[in-house]
Structure formats: C-alpha cells, structure tokens
Amino acid sequence: MEDDIRSQQLGVGGVAARILPGLPPTTAEMPPATGIPTTSRPQPMMRIGPIGSRGDTCTISFGNKSVWIQTGCFAGTLEDFKEAVEEKYPALTQHGKTYRAMIIFIKAVQDSAKL
Known about the structure:
Number of helices: 2
Order of helices and strands: EEEEEEHH
Strand content: 25-35%
Structural class: alpha+beta
Shape: globular
Strand order of the largest sheet: 1-2-3-4-5-6
Radius of gyration: 14 Å
Number of strands: 6
Helix content: 25-40%
C-alpha cells in the first residue's frame, strides 16, 4: 500500500495532499443521488488536510470527468465547492487563498490524469 501513495505538498499553509489511486469511493464520498455515475471499477481519490477554518480533511473523488468534494458539512461537485468558497471566503483571507489553491490543484490533477 505504501508504494501506491504519492504525496504532494501545497505551498499554502503547509497543507498536504495524498493521491490514493485505485481506492473505491465510499457511499459518503460519492452518493448515487448526486448524478455522478458510479462504476464497479475503483475510482481515484485523494485527501487533503488539515485544511480550512475547521482544520478538516477534504476527500476528493474522481469519476467520469466529474469531481466530488466532501469536507466538513459540505458535499458536492467541484463547481459547487468553488461557488461556496467564492461566497464564504474572500480571496485575500488565509482560508480563501488555501481553498482556491486546493481547487487549482484538484483541477491540475484531474487534467494531468485525464480523470
């Protein structure tokens, strides 16, 4: 298992990200009600944390060109998360910067892996 884990350090607030290839998302991470297609094959996911105002862990699940975010009381698509961040956290605050950096990082992972 240790060989399957690649870690990436984000340069904002010492936030760590782990990409966990081949682990199936749990129901809590990608519920069927979201409209995100689920498959029988394992989908890539990663966890980033501690992050944000709660120091929580953010779980990101990738599937069929969709990204599902679960952190604290938030669960939704990457676009929903981006909108929530824009509403709640001004760009120049520490949490605003951290969340925006995480969004850029998630998009880069999605693009580079063609997820």
